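Hi P.,

Sorry for the delay on this. The queue was packed all week, but I finally got your sequence through. Input first:
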Amino acid sequence: MNLKKKLSIIVLLCFTLNMLLLFGYYELILYDKIEESLNTMQIELRNDVNYISSQIKRLQGMDNIKDWINNIDNIDSINITIERGDNTLLYEHKTYEKSLLNLTSTDLINIKDNVYMIKVEKPLQISKIRNIPFIKDIVVAEVVIGVFILIFILIIIYYKIVNPIMYLQKDIENYKFGIKPIKTNRCDEIGWLKNNFVELTEKLDEEKKNQNRIIASISHDIKTPLTSIMGYSEMIKNKNMPQERKDRYMEIIYSKSQNIKELIDEFDIYLGSNLESSIKKKPISVKEISKIIDEEYRDELTQLGIQFDIKSDCDESILNIDMSKMRRVFGNIIGNSIKNMKKDYKKIEINFNNDKENILISIADNGCGVDDDKIDKIFEALYTSDKSRNVAGLGLSICKSIVECHGGKIYAKNNFYGGLTIVIVLKCNN
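Then the structure:
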């Protein structure tokens, strides 16, 4: 339940509690006071009626009625009406102040065969009603009840809202010192806020672990070729070494330096937040793509003893892509295939197929493949299927980012060669 509903319920409960307490106070204490006060006023009113009746009886008529009625002490606060039995109005005195209600007393007298009805009303005036004792008691009671309910509301707000917020603030402060918060079962906004904070801290911790793993990965991958470079550089310092061997060592040093450069470039691409905006697409045919890939990798793969085939059933199909970025994709996938080939006969095959609106590009090898339960994880940034390594590269993660920025998708599956096939799906432009 959210805070809005909780506060609405609290207000409703407080209002109900206020009415119940006020009603209970009225029934138990005020009722007798009110009845006593009204009885007192009624008796006073009855005395006024009796006085008027006695005067009329004494005078045996209505002579000089105005003079002796004006002698009544509270004449300005009462209404007096005297009528004969045939409803003839003989005398009337009225106050003109507004009232909430009237108290009434009447009397009938018989004089000389004439019947007179005397009616006296006492208006309870708005300006004087607050001076009635029981009204003051009600106001005092309402003030006391209001204070009690206010304290009750403040206690609830403190324990249900303020205190949890203070604990949340404490969790935030503790997290700075490495103390992790825990989730709450609370289902209102404060509970959602705390649980979102816990999820955020978990993501931050995971991101921190990823950063540490990336640093370890880069450190590991740079350390190996760098160690070789340092070793060969040390050997080149030997003045008695034949020039032919020096040249060969220089080539190895250059090759290792290129490996380090490619690794750093790969890291830069992974960290780049503007990959999508940096892509510049141009129309290019499948036939032209095949030619570029063939020229770039055939000689290298032939020297490594790897059979390399490119097949296509859609040479004239057009793809709208950034070829420089897609060359990176082909390079990373082919590089991974080379690393995972353990057999004497090695093969890499690239197929371009037209699937209605899409072009399917499959890059297959006959390497060691990947376990079926792990195949969906190989595109994660820091995952590796090589159990001998404690850290992982970023190549396939970068491939996925580049393909998705082209509006395509990429996935992997094991093939009948016993190796792995990477499939890239791109929308055809014609």
